[in-house]
Amino acid sequence: MVGYATEKGAKPKGRNRVGRCRLSLPVSLLIWYKNPVGRDTMAKTIRHREQQQYWSKYYEANRERLLKEKREWWAKWYPQHKQELLPIIRQKKWTLKQEVLTHYGNGKCACVKCGFDDLRALSIDHILGEGNTLRKRIGSLGGISFYRMLRKEGYPQGYQTLCMNCQFIKRIENREHFAGKPEPRGIAEHRGRGGS
Fold first, then answer.
1. What does the alpha-carbon distance between residue 195 and residue 100 come to, in Å, rounded to a whole number?
2. What letters, b where the CB count within 10 A reaches 16 and e where it falls short, cover 179-194?
3. Domain ranges of the chain
């Protein structure tokens, strides 16, 4: 609870009259009134807090209607500005991909096995080969959505950056691609011959 200033010798009445207009103000506002240096900052802070509380209540009371209006506005606005937005969206996606791949590439945006560094051919690999079970558990999550999830969760362990060549080699060597299925005939024969 906010304390209130009182006039000298008077019993606390909960408010203090200030200036000619005889305003009743809490102590925090009295300090603001008598300190012209901090006036703007204090007033903005109080107004901001009141506005935040108001809009939070308003949003909760009108959430469905506001979301519907936002979707309608976006449906009209986006087609008109699509060409302006596409390069910005594309750049944000590439930046996010580079950030995530750099983290899982041990500080370098390159394959951890061969050192290949072309961003177009790099991807995230599940070290234990559990990508399929993860997709089944949380739904189809790939590409930029997957990178967002990794960043949001604080870059969990169990992933690495690999180029597509190293990733496919790893899948075949560890038999990740054929989990629960028999190998195709060509690959089984290739393994039997010892490779060439």
1. 35
2. eeeeeeeeeeeeeeee
3. 94-178
Strand-pairing partners, residue 124, are 161
Residue 58: both structure tokens together: 């308003």
Range list of β-strands (E), 54-158: 122-126
Cβ-count burial of 61 within 10 angstroms (0-12 exposed, 13-18 middle, 19+ buried)? exposed
What is the Cα–Cα distance from 105 to 99, expressed in whole angstroms? Answer: 10
| pLDDT digits 0-9 by tens, 123-182 | 998 888 777 777 777 776 778 888 998 999 999 998 999 999 998 898 888 877 655 555
Does residue 127 sit in helix, strand or coil? coil
Residue-wise pLDDT tens digits, 119-134: 999 999 888 877 777 7
Distance CA 75, CA 80 (A): 9
81 vs 124: CA distance, rounded Å? 32
pLDDT digits (tens, 9 = 90+) for 79-95: 999 999 999 999 999 99
| pTM score | 0.56
Round to whole Å and give the CA distance between 187 and 24: 86
DSSP 8-state secondary structure symbol assigned to residue 123: E
- Reduced to 3 states, what is the DSSP secondary structure of residue 41? helix
Residue 69 confidence class, pLDDT cut points 50, 70, 90 = very high
As given in the structure block, the two tokens for residue 94 are 């590439």
